[in-house]
Amino acid sequence: QVRLVESGGGLVQPGGSLRLACTSSGSTFGMFLMSWHRQAPGKQRELVATIHYTGTTTYTDSVKGRFTISKDNTDSTIWLQSSDLKPEDTAVYYCHFRELKTLRDFWGQGTQVTVSP
C-alpha cells in the first residue's frame, strides 16, 4: 500500500534545470527499487534512473552526466535533479516504487516537464 506523488515539473528553456520530487506514503522504505520513468505522447514509457534502497544508482545513457537521482529516507522522498535539459527530455515524468520482497509495483500520476525555447 504505497502512494506516490510527483512534483517539480514545469516549463524550462534548453540548458536549464529542474528538480523533481517523488514523495511516498503508506509504507516505509524496506527492500525496494525506486525509479524515474518518462513518457512523451505517442511514445513508450522509458526508464530514466533507478535507486536501490542500498543507494546504488543507474541511469539511461541519454541522461548520464546531466541527471542525478537521490533519496531522502527521512521524509520518504526521491529526487531527480536534471540539468542541461534538452527538448528531447520533454515528457511526463513518473515515479515508480518496487517492493523487492513482494515484487509489487506502484506508480505516481506523473509531472510534466517541457523543455522549449
Give an overview in words.
The chain has 117 residues and is an all-beta fold. It is built from no helices and 11 strands. It has strands spanning 3-7, 10-12, 18-25, 32-39, 46-52, 57-59, 67-72, 77-82, 91-99, 104-107, 111-115. Strands 2, 4, 5, 6, 9, 10 and 11 form a 7-stranded mixed sheet that branches. Strands 1-3-8-7 form a 4-stranded antiparallel sheet, with no helix packed on it. It is globular, with a radius of gyration of 14 Å. The protein starts with a strand and ends with a strand. The model has no long low-confidence stretch (mean pLDDT 94).
What structural keywords apply?
about 55% strand; mainly beta; seven-stranded mixed β-sheet
Output the helix-strand order: EEEEEEEEEEE
Give the terminus-to-terminus CA distance.
Answer: 40 Å
Proportion of residues in extended strands: over 45%
Put simply, the count of helices is 0
Strand tally, please?
11
Main sheet makeup: 7 strands, mixed
* Helix and strand composition category: mainly beta
Alpha carbon gyration radius: 14 Å
Mean pLDDT: 94
Segments where pLDDT lies below 50 for 5+ residues?
Answer: none
> How would you sum up the global shape?
globular
What percentage of residues falls in helices of 4 or more residues? under 10%
